[in-house]
Amino acid sequence: MPEQRICSFTHEEIEPGTGMMYIKRDGTVYWFKDSKARKNMLKLKRNPRRLKWTRRYEKGGIK
């Protein structure tokens, strides 16, 4: 049985055989479901709790 991975940005499950792994210089490993999640986290430095399309979204807003 393949290992289930969770996207580091959206917290959605990644299907086996898909997704991307990103390793920072300090050894931190990030898994991304697609390029949209990767770009939003690494390039645009967005907070996933502010984006409605992520599972980390908070309805009441961030305080």
From TrEMBL:
GO cellular component, one term: ribonucleoprotein complex
Keywords associated with the record: Metal-binding, Ribonucleoprotein, Ribosomal protein, RNA-binding, rRNA-binding, Zinc
Residues of the signal peptide: none
PROSITE patterns: RIBOSOMAL_L24E
Transmembrane parts of this sequence: none
GO biological process, one term: translation
Large ribosomal subunit protein eL24-related N-terminal domain: residues covered: 5-58
Superkingdom, natural source: Archaea
Subunit field text: Part of the 50S ribosomal subunit. Forms a cluster with proteins L3 and L14.
Main function: Binds to the 23S rRNA.
Family: Belongs to the eukaryotic ribosomal protein eL24 family.
Record-given protein name: Large ribosomal subunit protein eL24
